[in-house]
Amino acid sequence: MTTYEPVIGLEIHTELLTKSKMFCGCSAAYSEAPAPNTLICPVCTALPGAMPVVNQKAVEQAILVGLALNCTINPMNQFARKNYFYPDLPKGYQISQYDLPVASDGWLEIPDDSGEGTQRVRVRRAHLEEDTAKLAHQGNSALVDFNRAGVPLLEIVSEPDMRTVEAALAYATKIRAILRYLGVNSGDMEKGVLRFEANVSVRPVGSQELRTRTEIKNLNSFRALTRASAYEIQRQTKIYETGGEVVQETLGWDDVRGVTVSQRSKEEAHDYRYFPEPDLPPLEISRLWVEEIKAQLPELPEAKSQRFVSVFGLTVKEAKLLTSEKALADYFEKAVSLSKSPAKIINNWITGEFLRYVNELGLDLDHLPVPAEHLAGLVDLVTGKIINDNSAKVVLKEMFETGQAPQAIVEAKNLAQISDEGYLEQVVAQILNDNPGAVASFLAGKETVLQFLMGQVARLTKGKADPQVARQLLMQALTKLKEN
Amino acid sequence: MSRTGMAIMSRCRWFLGKSSQMELHSLSIREAHELLSKKQVSSLELTTAALEHIRKTDLHIRAFVTVSDELALEQARLADERLRTGEGVTPLTGIPFAVKDCISTKNVRTTCSSKILENYVPQYNATVIDRLAEAGAVLVGKHNMDEFGMGSSCENSAFFNTHNPWDLERVPGGSSGGSAAAVAASMGVFALGEDTGGSVRMPAGFCNVTGLKPTYGRVPRYGLIALVSSFDCIGPMARDAWDCAAVLQAIAGQDRRDTTSLPAPVPDYVKGLEKPVKGLRLGVPKEYFQSGMEPGVESSIREAIHKFEELGMEVREVSLPHTKYGLPVYYLILFAEASANLARFDGARFGLSVTEGAENVIDMYLQTRREGFGPEVKRRIMLGAYVLSAGYYDAYYLKAQRVRTLLRRDFEAAFEQCDALVAPTCPTTAFKLGEKTDDPLTMYLSDIYVVSTNPAGVPALSVPCGFSNGMPVGMQLIGKHLSEDVLLQIGHAYQSVTDWHLKRPTVAK
To answer: Which of A37, A69, B220, B383 is deepest in the core (most CB within 10 A)?
Structure first.
């Protein structure tokens, strides 16, 4: 039986984080608008005679993204009209770019199927356009809110280079991370600032042909992207297996039923009748401008991750996790710079207990109750043997709950670790005295009893004993008994 | 008319009886400015006279879609205040004017002579309206036109026909027909027309008015309801070249809201008028003098050319070899751009909205556009969608854009040999109402001499140069990029030695 492999390409619509809209001076912060239709003007509501003016900041951000995705920045840009009728599109056309986009022919590296190496996904193009208005259906009619109309969008189009749903997810995740690194998108998927369209086809493994594809529109979360793609791969595979033909169509994703739904067939497809936007002269992007923007390009996940490996001695896997979000990487670096402890140990704390709390509490990495210096302090308390790991976990929990500094919590809860050998020797002596049976077992060769005796130490010291010292003293005492 | 109005009118007649044989409403900008500056007349008097003349005369001409009396009187009072203090007075301060109804005017209905905008009142002013208000001019109303500028006779107005003041049986030309007729009939001192493919010059020629189509981008388009975004030019229509220069002075110059407007500095057009034309080289494009021209038109043009020689200009024949492609290039690009420009008229946000019986939004679109647009508009929208559609784009739109480059090069080559071109504005004089309405192609042909300049973007001035069978003949002066000053200078020199532009139809009196 033939095995099929998916062929996936993604179109990612990202809103840009500019103050004003793409073609007028209205605020682009539509999600903070006081009421519908308050951030509007003759341009973004397409009153007769109104004309667009290109937002230079949006162009800059588009160039920034293009550079980050290893694209060529095209010196000559042209806006184009994409014509179709819909109530959310006030002009009856969307100003977009067609044959002369801002950026083209780039690539992005993602992990390969083995997870060991990397593979390149080619980026065909990235072009600027404007967002549409929002429709609110109300009984028999619909209301239009133009606050979002004209907000700058960058559409990033990949080549059909992904062969698994995981690869598509990795690509999308990485694009999101890069956009956030560049500060051009909040990555806030729930607000719809990032939307995916997946082009999916399947073909027999080994074949190089591109078969009929379907296009799944408006996927607003990673979950929807993976579920919809997986469903579509399965659906198309089944069609071929039963001797059918896949029909080229535009699909929607029904999240509740978990199925793709046909929206438009090829015959019903729009002819957008693109032509150059005559209200805007061609936009020239000079080399100099590109160089200026290049100089603003921040360190991107890839480079940062490599640096973390070489400078901090982290493993590739650790570094990738830390750099997956700029805020997390920044947090890590700040903590390292404020701490006397090795970076590796700080990494362990951040990627362990720390992230567990962040995820459990659903916290935003940009607004954490635990500043990096507090975490650095906590790790220093551990490495300085002031507190032991167990106490540290308790302290961290408290830090998340109260926002207090670790030193203060340790003091208040009297959690400082006991490393005093004289005191611990007494404790050990008492335990050996109280548990003759266990001691006998140990002497008989049952060394696992040591764990039980360590537990007794913890009980007696309320968990504050320095485990290393305690274990050493316990061993010494037991060895002595054995020798006797 | 109010009692005050009557009182002012009688005072005007008394005043004019003493100083001039002319009526107040028929003054030029230059004349009116002089009287205003000398405080011999007030803007309120001028404005009231204009409104009164419009009220009487427009019954026959029908040049106005809207007369904005109240606003006009208010602006006139403000102008008088400026004239009194002398602060910020320009040649246009206190002068009554009106504009083609495709130019947005805040709080004054702007219809494009279309049912779809019959009750549309803009919330903002076009840049040119702001600039004229700043100069102190007084807006008295909005002119009838061919619907959305699509036509050459004003007969495509959805509301009514405008009549040529020289012969009420004839058309005023189009699409700025209302503006040309109004200026010719002295209803307002000047007008702003809009020229997409001759729409200022052609009716100016038909009505014995001086009309300028500036270089593309010289005058900002913000607020102009677009027909063809890459052709549209707002331009002055007035009594003579001097007046056109004064109006252009006020409206030209870059606008940050229109990025297709040109950053080039604006020269002093009025001052430049007096420069001698002697030695300037005038090209006569041979392709513009071929068969089909009315004999009376040709003889008037030839006579004018002779006048230019007398003025010391060098006249030589030149060639614009791609002229025959002007009309198809013009229309193909027009169809394409217009089809998109008119997409926003969908009944959803402003203007006509026909929702009764609509099952869904598509029904609303269809019903609104079916009832709102006239047949010529529908024809052009459909042709536009066609020439842009997949499979036809290259053959029509793209090809037209390539030939457009050839048209532009024609002009560039010609201007290496001369400073301006002279040609007829129209092959005939004004035709009869109804004469060409059944045949859109014949109608398109009346624009044969005026359409090429718009794809090329160059400026052109239409100047009255004679009469043929009692109807005015217009002559076109075409210049290189941004040479409005030279065209106005030549026009002014011509008008200094001729009096065709001073002839007025009886209704203007």
So the answer is: B220
Mutate to test the interface with B, among A267, A279, A284 (most CBs of B within 10 A): A279
Nearest to B340 among A47, A51, A93 (CB): A93
Mutation site for A-interface testing, chosen from B349, B350, B369 by largest number of A Cβ within 10 Å: B349
Closest CA of chain A from B385, distance in Å: 7
For A423-434, what is each residue's pLDDT tens digit? 888 888 888 889
Domain holding B116, by residue range, is 24-504
The residue of B257, B333, B370, B373 whose CB has the most chain A CBs within 10 angstroms, and thus the best one to mutate to test that interface, is: B257
B306 found inside a domain: yes
Contact between chains at A53 and B260 (C-beta distance less than 8 A): no
Question: Span A237-255, mean pLDDT?
Answer: 95
Active-site annotation holder among B28, B43, B100, B142: B100
- What CATH number should be reported for the domain holding residue B197? 3.90.1300.10
Which chain A residues touch B339 with a CB distance below 8 Å?
83, 273
- B445 closest CA partner among B457, B459, B428: B428
Q: What is the pLDDT of residues B216-237, one digit of tens each?
A: 999 999 999 999 999 999 999 9
Burial class of residue B295 in the structure, from the number of CB atoms within 10 Å of its CB (0-12 exposed, 13-18 middle, 19+ buried): exposed
Q: Say if B322 falls within a structural domain.
A: yes
Is residue B319 annotated as a catalytic residue, yes or no?
A: no
Q: Binning pLDDT at 50, 70 and 90, where does residue B106 land? A: very high
pLDDT tier, B3 (very low <50, low <70, confident <90, very high otherwise): very low
ipTM score over 0.90, yes or no: yes
CA distance A123 to chain B (A): 25
Q: Would you say residue B13 lies in a domain?
A: no
Residue A92 at interface with chain B, using a CB cutoff of 8 Å: yes
- Smallest CA–CA distance, residue A129 to chain B, in Å, is 17
Ordered structural domains, chain A, with CATH: 4-293 (no CATH), 299-413 (no CATH), 421-483 (1.10.10.410)
pLDDT greater than 90 at residue A417: no
Is B323 within the bounds of a domain?
A: yes
pLDDT at B421 over 80: yes
Which tokens go with B261? Answer: 């407007």
Q: Write the residue in A85, A271, A274 that is nearest to B346 by C-beta.
A: A85
Rounded to the nearest 5 degrees, what angle is found at the Cα of A351, between the Cα atoms of A348 and A357? 120
- pLDDT score for A479: 86
Do residues B332 and B396 make contact, with C-beta atoms less than 8 angstroms apart?
yes
Q: CB-CB: which of B104, B365, B385 is closest to A49? A: B104
pLDDT at A93: 98
CB contact under 8 A, A278 and B229: yes
pLDDT at A69 over 90: yes
Residue B175 a catalytic site member: yes
3-state SS assignment for residue B428: coil
Distance CA A103, CA A128 (A): 9
d(CA B127, CA B268) in angstroms, rounded, equals: 20
The domain total for chain B is 1
Answer whether B77's CB lies under 8 Å from B67's CB: no
Q: Calculate the average pLDDT of chain B.
A: 94
B199 is catalytic: yes
B228-271 pLDDT, tens digit each: 999 999 999 999 999 999 999 999 999 999 999 999 999 999 99
Burial of residue A102 (CB within 10 Å: 0-12, 13-18, 19+) is: buried
End-to-end CA distance of chain A: 74
